[in-house]
From TrEMBL:
Lineage: Bacteria, Pseudomonadati, Pseudomonadota, Alphaproteobacteria, Hyphomicrobiales
InterPro entries with a match to the protein in the record: NrtA/CpmA_ABC-bd_dom
CDD domains: PBP2_NrtA_CpmA_like
Domain of life from the UniProt record: Bacteria
Pfam families per record: NMT1_2 (PF13379)
Organism expressing this protein natively: Agrobacterium albertimagni
GO cellular component entries: endomembrane system
Name assigned to this protein: Bicarbonate-binding protein
Subcellular location: Endomembrane system
Protein backbone atom coordinates (compact mmCIF):
# COMPACT_ATOMS: atom_id res chain seq x y z
CA UNK A 1 0.00 0.00 0.00
CA UNK A 2 3.04 2.27 0.17
CA UNK A 3 2.31 3.38 3.75
CA UNK A 4 5.80 2.76 5.09
CA UNK A 5 8.03 2.95 2.02
CA UNK A 6 10.12 5.88 0.81
CA UNK A 7 8.00 8.48 -0.98
CA UNK A 8 5.00 6.20 -0.35
CA UNK A 9 5.89 4.10 -3.39
CA UNK A 10 4.14 0.72 -3.06
CA UNK A 11 6.37 -2.36 -2.99
CA UNK A 12 4.02 -5.31 -3.59
CA UNK A 13 4.60 -7.98 -0.96
CA UNK A 14 3.24 -11.47 -0.47
CA UNK A 15 2.61 -13.23 2.84
CA UNK A 16 3.55 -16.89 2.60
CA UNK A 17 3.34 -17.95 6.24
CA UNK A 18 2.66 -16.83 9.76
CA UNK A 19 5.74 -17.29 11.92
CA UNK A 20 4.26 -17.49 15.41
CA UNK A 21 1.33 -16.94 17.73
CA UNK A 22 1.24 -15.20 21.14
CA UNK A 23 4.02 -14.33 23.62
CA UNK A 24 4.70 -10.63 23.21
CA UNK A 25 4.68 -8.64 26.43
CA UNK A 26 3.36 -5.35 27.78
CA UNK A 27 5.64 -4.15 30.54
CA UNK A 28 5.45 -1.20 32.93
CA UNK A 29 8.05 0.71 34.92
CA UNK A 30 8.60 -0.35 38.52
CA UNK A 31 7.30 3.03 39.73
CA UNK A 32 3.77 1.85 38.87
CA UNK A 33 3.95 -1.45 40.74
CA UNK A 34 1.69 -0.29 43.57
CA UNK A 35 -1.16 0.41 41.13
CA UNK A 36 -1.60 -3.34 40.73
CA UNK A 37 -1.98 -2.85 36.98
CA UNK A 38 -2.23 -6.02 34.95
CA UNK A 39 -4.58 -6.96 32.17
CA UNK A 40 -6.82 -4.03 33.18
CA UNK A 41 -4.98 -0.88 32.10
CA UNK A 42 -7.59 1.39 33.70
CA UNK A 43 -5.54 1.28 36.91
CA UNK A 44 -3.06 3.57 35.15
CA UNK A 45 -5.62 6.05 33.85
CA UNK A 46 -5.68 8.46 36.81
CA UNK A 47 -1.96 8.31 37.55
CA UNK A 48 -1.13 8.93 33.88
CA UNK A 49 -3.59 11.83 33.80
CA UNK A 50 -2.05 13.31 36.96
CA UNK A 51 1.46 13.11 35.52
CA UNK A 52 0.32 14.82 32.35
CA UNK A 53 -1.57 17.52 34.28
CA UNK A 54 1.59 18.26 36.25
CA UNK A 55 3.43 18.98 33.02
CA UNK A 56 5.01 15.59 32.58
CA UNK A 57 4.88 13.39 29.50
CA UNK A 58 3.65 9.81 29.62
CA UNK A 59 5.70 7.83 27.12
CA UNK A 60 4.61 4.44 25.84
CA UNK A 61 7.05 2.65 23.56
CA UNK A 62 6.57 0.22 20.71
CA UNK A 63 8.72 -0.94 17.83
CA UNK A 64 7.02 0.43 14.70
CA UNK A 65 3.89 2.54 14.04
CA UNK A 66 1.09 0.30 12.81
CA UNK A 67 3.08 -2.85 13.62
CA UNK A 68 1.96 -5.60 15.95
CA UNK A 69 3.48 -4.15 19.14
CA UNK A 70 1.86 -0.80 18.41
CA UNK A 71 -1.52 -2.48 17.93
CA UNK A 72 -1.27 -4.61 21.09
CA UNK A 73 -0.39 -1.75 23.43
CA UNK A 74 -3.00 0.50 21.82
CA UNK A 75 -5.65 -2.17 22.31
CA UNK A 76 -4.64 -2.67 25.95
CA UNK A 77 -4.64 1.04 26.74
CA UNK A 78 -7.92 1.75 24.93
CA UNK A 79 -9.67 -1.16 26.65
CA UNK A 80 -8.73 0.53 29.93
CA UNK A 81 -10.14 3.88 28.85
CA UNK A 82 -6.75 5.42 27.94
CA UNK A 83 -6.62 7.02 24.49
CA UNK A 84 -3.21 6.14 22.97
CA UNK A 85 -3.34 9.21 20.73
CA UNK A 86 -4.50 11.77 23.29
CA UNK A 87 -3.62 10.60 26.79
CA UNK A 88 -0.07 9.33 26.19
CA UNK A 89 2.79 9.80 23.74
CA UNK A 90 3.65 6.73 21.71
CA UNK A 91 7.34 6.53 20.83
CA UNK A 92 9.39 4.17 18.68
CA UNK A 93 12.28 2.32 20.35
CA UNK A 94 14.21 -0.65 18.89
CA UNK A 95 13.62 -3.85 20.92
CA UNK A 96 17.18 -4.24 22.31
CA UNK A 97 17.04 -0.66 23.65
CA UNK A 98 13.74 -1.01 25.55
CA UNK A 99 15.19 -2.12 28.89
CA UNK A 100 17.99 0.47 28.93
CA UNK A 101 15.55 3.27 28.15
CA UNK A 102 13.17 2.24 30.89
CA UNK A 103 16.07 1.99 33.31
CA UNK A 104 16.89 5.69 32.83
CA UNK A 105 13.24 6.76 32.95
CA UNK A 106 12.69 7.47 29.26
CA UNK A 107 9.39 5.57 29.16
CA UNK A 108 6.52 4.48 31.37
CA UNK A 109 5.46 1.32 29.52
CA UNK A 110 6.35 -0.65 26.43
CA UNK A 111 5.25 -3.52 24.24
CA UNK A 112 7.89 -5.78 22.73
CA UNK A 113 8.70 -9.41 22.12
CA UNK A 114 11.00 -11.56 24.20
CA UNK A 115 13.53 -11.69 25.70
CA UNK A 116 13.24 -8.01 26.62
CA UNK A 117 10.28 -8.29 29.00
CA UNK A 118 11.97 -11.15 30.80
CA UNK A 119 15.24 -9.20 30.92
CA UNK A 120 13.41 -6.23 32.43
CA UNK A 121 12.11 -8.47 35.19
CA UNK A 122 15.45 -10.18 35.74
CA UNK A 123 17.11 -6.77 36.16
CA UNK A 124 14.33 -5.60 38.53
CA UNK A 125 13.59 -2.49 36.46
CA UNK A 126 9.92 -3.11 35.79
CA UNK A 127 7.26 -5.79 35.51
CA UNK A 128 5.02 -7.41 32.94
CA UNK A 129 1.43 -6.23 33.17
CA UNK A 130 0.26 -8.92 30.75
CA UNK A 131 1.31 -10.97 27.80
CA UNK A 132 -0.44 -10.38 24.51
CA UNK A 133 -1.91 -13.87 24.53
CA UNK A 134 -3.99 -12.69 27.47
CA UNK A 135 -5.44 -9.94 25.28
CA UNK A 136 -6.27 -12.36 22.48
CA UNK A 137 -5.44 -16.03 23.04
CA UNK A 138 -3.77 -17.53 20.01
CA UNK A 139 -3.30 -14.21 18.25
CA UNK A 140 -1.19 -14.00 15.08
CA UNK A 141 2.19 -12.31 15.20
CA UNK A 142 5.07 -12.15 12.74
CA UNK A 143 4.81 -13.21 9.10
CA UNK A 144 7.07 -14.45 6.34
CA UNK A 145 6.77 -11.78 3.66
CA UNK A 146 8.56 -11.75 0.32
CA UNK A 147 8.48 -9.35 -2.60
CA UNK A 148 5.68 -10.42 -4.88
CA UNK A 149 7.76 -9.99 -8.05
CA UNK A 150 10.45 -12.31 -6.63
CA UNK A 151 7.84 -14.93 -5.70
CA UNK A 152 6.38 -14.82 -9.21
CA UNK A 153 9.79 -14.98 -10.89
CA UNK A 154 11.15 -17.71 -8.58
CA UNK A 155 8.23 -19.98 -7.65
CA UNK A 156 10.38 -23.05 -6.91
CA UNK A 157 12.85 -21.13 -4.75
CA UNK A 158 10.00 -19.34 -2.94
CA UNK A 159 8.35 -22.63 -2.09
CA UNK A 160 11.66 -24.20 -1.01
CA UNK A 161 12.35 -21.24 1.27
CA UNK A 162 8.88 -21.55 2.74
CA UNK A 163 9.30 -25.28 3.33
CA UNK A 164 12.58 -24.66 5.15
CA UNK A 165 10.85 -22.12 7.40
CA UNK A 166 8.00 -24.54 8.08
CA UNK A 167 10.44 -27.29 9.08
CA UNK A 168 12.21 -24.83 11.38
CA UNK A 169 8.86 -23.96 12.95
CA UNK A 170 8.19 -27.63 13.66
CA UNK A 171 11.59 -27.94 15.33
CA UNK A 172 11.14 -24.75 17.35
CA UNK A 173 7.75 -25.86 18.63
CA UNK A 174 9.09 -28.98 20.36
CA UNK A 175 9.67 -28.56 24.10
CA UNK A 176 12.64 -30.89 23.71
CA UNK A 177 14.42 -28.19 21.71
CA UNK A 178 13.69 -25.13 23.87
CA UNK A 179 16.96 -25.19 25.84
CA UNK A 180 19.06 -25.51 22.69
CA UNK A 181 17.00 -22.77 21.07
CA UNK A 182 17.60 -20.51 24.10
CA UNK A 183 21.34 -21.15 23.91
CA UNK A 184 21.37 -20.27 20.20
CA UNK A 185 19.30 -17.12 20.62
CA UNK A 186 21.38 -15.97 23.58
CA UNK A 187 24.58 -15.89 21.50
CA UNK A 188 26.23 -12.59 20.69
CA UNK A 189 25.28 -12.64 17.02
CA UNK A 190 21.59 -12.89 17.94
CA UNK A 191 20.11 -11.46 21.16
CA UNK A 192 23.36 -11.36 23.14
CA UNK A 193 21.59 -12.12 26.43
CA UNK A 194 21.86 -14.87 29.05
CA UNK A 195 19.91 -17.96 27.87
CA UNK A 196 17.79 -17.74 31.04
CA UNK A 197 16.34 -14.48 29.69
CA UNK A 198 14.97 -16.53 26.80
CA UNK A 199 14.15 -19.97 28.19
CA UNK A 200 11.44 -19.31 30.76
CA UNK A 201 8.78 -17.68 28.61
CA UNK A 202 9.76 -19.83 25.66
CA UNK A 203 8.59 -22.78 27.76
CA UNK A 204 5.47 -21.02 29.05
CA UNK A 205 6.78 -20.07 32.50
CA UNK A 206 6.06 -16.40 33.12
CA UNK A 207 7.62 -14.46 35.96
CA UNK A 208 5.67 -11.21 35.76
CA UNK A 209 8.07 -9.48 38.14
CA UNK A 210 5.33 -8.37 40.53
CA UNK A 211 5.26 -11.46 42.70
CA UNK A 212 3.21 -13.45 40.22
CA UNK A 213 4.77 -16.52 38.59
CA UNK A 214 2.75 -18.81 36.31
CA UNK A 215 4.14 -22.13 35.12
CA UNK A 216 2.73 -24.06 32.17
CA UNK A 217 0.74 -20.95 31.25
CA UNK A 218 -0.06 -22.08 27.73
CA UNK A 219 0.96 -18.56 26.66
CA UNK A 220 4.33 -19.58 25.24
CA UNK A 221 5.08 -18.68 21.64
CA UNK A 222 3.63 -21.22 19.23
CA UNK A 223 5.53 -21.82 16.03
CA UNK A 224 3.63 -24.77 14.56
CA UNK A 225 0.82 -26.13 16.73
CA UNK A 226 -2.64 -24.56 16.62
CA UNK A 227 -2.08 -23.83 12.93
CA UNK A 228 0.52 -21.22 13.90
CA UNK A 229 2.28 -21.37 10.54
CA UNK A 230 -0.77 -21.05 8.31
CA UNK A 231 -1.46 -17.47 7.14
CA UNK A 232 -5.18 -17.07 7.87
CA UNK A 233 -6.72 -14.35 5.72
CA UNK A 234 -9.03 -13.50 8.61
CA UNK A 235 -6.01 -12.49 10.69
CA UNK A 236 -4.68 -10.22 7.96
CA UNK A 237 -8.14 -8.66 7.91
CA UNK A 238 -7.93 -7.85 11.62
CA UNK A 239 -4.54 -6.17 11.27
CA UNK A 240 -5.88 -3.98 8.48
CA UNK A 241 -9.09 -3.22 10.39
CA UNK A 242 -7.14 -2.24 13.48
CA UNK A 243 -5.01 0.11 11.41
CA UNK A 244 -8.21 1.62 10.03
CA UNK A 245 -9.24 2.10 13.67
CA UNK A 246 -6.14 4.17 14.36
CA UNK A 247 -6.20 6.16 11.15
CA UNK A 248 -3.31 4.41 9.41
CA UNK A 249 -5.64 3.29 6.60
CA UNK A 250 -8.66 5.10 5.20
CA UNK A 251 -12.12 4.06 6.45
CA UNK A 252 -13.11 3.02 2.91
CA UNK A 253 -10.15 0.63 2.51
CA UNK A 254 -11.25 -2.52 0.69
CA UNK A 255 -9.92 -4.91 3.30
CA UNK A 256 -10.89 -8.13 1.55
CA UNK A 257 -9.37 -7.04 -1.75
CA UNK A 258 -6.09 -6.02 -0.11
CA UNK A 259 -5.86 -9.29 1.84
CA UNK A 260 -6.57 -11.33 -1.28
CA UNK A 261 -3.84 -9.41 -3.07
CA UNK A 262 -1.07 -10.13 -0.56
CA UNK A 263 -2.02 -13.42 1.12
CA UNK A 264 -0.58 -16.50 -0.63
CA UNK A 265 -1.98 -19.24 1.55
CA UNK A 266 -2.22 -21.28 -1.64
CA UNK A 267 1.58 -21.58 -1.72
CA UNK A 268 1.57 -22.61 1.95
CA UNK A 269 -0.87 -25.41 1.16
CA UNK A 270 1.31 -26.62 -1.70
CA UNK A 271 4.38 -26.57 0.54
CA UNK A 272 2.55 -28.42 3.31
CA UNK A 273 1.50 -31.12 0.87
CA UNK A 274 5.06 -31.59 -0.36
CA UNK A 275 6.31 -31.78 3.24
CA UNK A 276 3.77 -34.49 4.03
CA UNK A 277 2.02 -32.39 6.67
CA UNK A 278 -0.90 -34.26 8.25
CA UNK A 279 -4.34 -33.26 7.08
CA UNK A 280 -5.26 -32.25 10.65
CA UNK A 281 -2.49 -29.63 10.55
CA UNK A 282 -3.85 -28.03 7.38
CA UNK A 283 -6.79 -25.67 8.01
CA UNK A 284 -9.91 -26.36 5.99
CA UNK A 285 -10.66 -22.65 5.60
CA UNK A 286 -8.68 -19.45 5.08
CA UNK A 287 -10.71 -17.93 7.92
CA UNK A 288 -10.46 -18.83 11.58
CA UNK A 289 -13.86 -17.24 12.05
CA UNK A 290 -14.90 -14.67 14.69
CA UNK A 291 -12.23 -13.84 17.30
CA UNK A 292 -13.03 -12.77 20.88
CA UNK A 293 -10.77 -10.45 22.87
CA UNK A 294 -10.28 -10.29 26.63
CA UNK A 295 -12.69 -7.37 26.99
CA UNK A 296 -15.49 -9.17 25.18
CA UNK A 297 -15.09 -7.41 21.84
CA UNK A 298 -15.62 -9.68 18.85
CA UNK A 299 -14.01 -9.35 15.45
CA UNK A 300 -15.97 -11.04 12.67
CA UNK A 301 -13.80 -11.05 9.52
CA UNK A 302 -16.97 -11.04 7.44
CA UNK A 303 -18.11 -7.79 9.09
CA UNK A 304 -15.13 -5.61 10.12
CA UNK A 305 -17.34 -2.53 10.36
CA UNK A 306 -19.40 -4.02 13.18
CA UNK A 307 -16.18 -4.49 15.15
CA UNK A 308 -15.11 -0.89 14.50
CA UNK A 309 -18.54 0.39 15.50
CA UNK A 310 -18.27 -1.45 18.85
CA UNK A 311 -15.08 0.36 19.87
CA UNK A 312 -15.37 3.48 22.04
CA UNK A 313 -11.82 4.76 21.54
CA UNK A 314 -10.54 5.12 17.98
CA UNK A 315 -8.99 7.75 15.74
CA UNK A 316 -12.35 8.70 14.25
CA UNK A 317 -14.14 9.01 17.61
Amino acid sequence: AGKVTQNNVPVPMSILARLNLDSQGISVAKAYAETGVGLDASKLRDIFAAKKAAGGEVKVAMTFPGGTHDLWIRYWLAAGGIDPDKDVSTIVVPPPQMVANMKVGNMDAFCVGEPWNEQLVNQDIGFTACTTGELWKGHPEKALGLRSDWVEQNPIAAKALLMAVMEAQMWADSMDNKDEMSDILGKRQWFNVPPKDVAGRLKGTINYGNGRVVENSGLEMKFWKDHASYPFKSHDAWFLTENVRWGKFAPDTDIKALVDKVNREDIWREAAKELGVAAADIPSSASRGPETFFDGKVFDPDNPQAYLDSLAIKASA
